[in-house]
Amino acid sequence: MRTQLLILSIITAMLLGLLPASAEPMEVSLATATKGGGFQLYGNAAAAAINDSDPSLKVVPHDTKGSLENIPLLNDGKFDLGLVQGVAAYEAFNGIGQPAVDLKVVAAIYSSPGMFVVKGDSAAQSVVDLVGKPVAWGTRTSGLTLMAKYIMDGLGYDRDKDFDPVFLKKAGEGPPLVIDGKVDAFWGAGIGWPGFTKVMKSGGRFIGFTDNDVEKVTAKHSFLKAMTVPADSYEGQSEDVGSIGVWSFILSRPDLPDDVAYKVAKALYQGHDALAAKLPQARETTPENTLSSVDNGRIHPGVLKYLEEIGLR
Questions:
Q1: Distance CA 87, CA 97 (A)
Q2: pTM (predicted TM-score)
Q3: What pLDDT, on a 0 to 100 scale, did the predictor assign at position 4?
Q4: What is d(CA 288, CA 75) in angstroms, rounded to the nearest whole number?
Q5: What pLDDT does 313 receive?
Q6: What is the pLDDT at residue 19?
Q7: For residue 182, how many other CB atoms are within 10 A of its CB?
Q8: 1 pLDDT more than 70
Q9: N or C: which end of the chain has fewer CB within 10 A?
Q10: Contacts of 276 (CB under 8 A, 6+ apart)
């Protein structure tokens, strides 16, 4: 009888709204970038992996204009998380061209080795061959476009004056411009980057950087690093491509609660295998890379707690 009364009381409380029938997942907003770009692709896949790993979370990705828009959106608390390319993060952390921000790193997601893609029959063999030619640099608010500005500066060029610059509304507009011969090259970065994938499938090839190029750029801008895109990273790529780049991040708004950052980081890393199966570049989304890619003071305290639990600190 007592058991029956207890069950009846619980059912009555649920019907009256005194007890929840089931807990709703915690919604976490994620700012990505424009359609056709790597951030949107990664953000959607990462959100799915996190949600599958931890049903108490509901990460919802939102298209934005990219890194340079995501930083103020995060700083103003309009999104919980956002994808930000490393050069844009560097400027924001150090107050270059803007007030310094206190956004926190939740994860280093993948390295961004920058390079150009051209048509297979292009006469261009190096950066100097592109000077004065139409080059699609990406969207104006993309961190990759900003990285190009620093790299060209390190080589002694002005991105906007020494080339015939073409800026896009969406990253997905770039591949057709190259394939149709409307621009001589398209700038981008990363392994598995959608823009590169489309051009390479049409018979394109890459223009990277020489050892001398890398030395000049990294000497002037030390936050940029030498990188390599291994052969066969893309269809038709038979050789390694020398590159220059940075890491990209998931950043959080300044006041994201520690427990939320902890849950997101844990779910992201627990879902690593599923995420990497969808996106080759996500193989780099590891706790070890997060810890080594940025000063620990930039990492969210909730994430540091998780890294301590798994023995990395």
A1: 12
A2: 0.81
A3: 55
A4: 26
A5: 82
A6: 41
A7: 11
A8: no
A9: N
A10: 282, 283, 285
Rounded CA separation 251/74 (Å): 8
Considering the chain, what percentage of its residues have pLDDT values greater than 70? Answer: 93
172-231 per-position pLDDT tens digit: 999 999 999 999 999 999 988 999 999 999 999 999 999 999 999 999 999 999 999 999
Fold of 112-246: D-Maltodextrin-Binding Protein; domain 2 (3.40.190)
| Domain extents in the chain | 27-111+247-309, 112-246
pLDDT mean over 112-137: 97
Quick one: tokens of 92?
Answer: 């924001």
| CA–CA distances in Å: residue 24 to residues 27, 49, 59, 189 | 9, 18, 13, 38
Measured between its terminal Cα atoms, the distance across the chain in Å is 54
What CA–CA distance (Å, rounded) separates 20 from 36?
41
CB burial of 156-177 (b: ≥16 within 10 Å; e: otherwise) equals ebebeebbebbebebbbbbbeb
Secondary structure class of 191 (helix, strand, coil)? coil
Res 18 pLDDT > 50? no
pLDDT band at 36, cuts 50/70/90?
Answer: confident
Chain centroid, CA 210 distance in Å: 25
Q: What is the DSSP letter of 23?
A: P
State the chain's mean pLDDT as an integer.
93
- 27-111+247-309 with 112-246: one CATH topology? yes
Count helices and strands in the chain by DSSP H and E runs? 12, 10
Per-position b or e across 18-43, b if 16+ CB within 10 A of its CB: eeeeeeeeeebbbbbbbebbbbbbbb
- The CATH architecture of the domain made up of 27-111+247-309 is 3-Layer(aba) Sandwich (3.40)
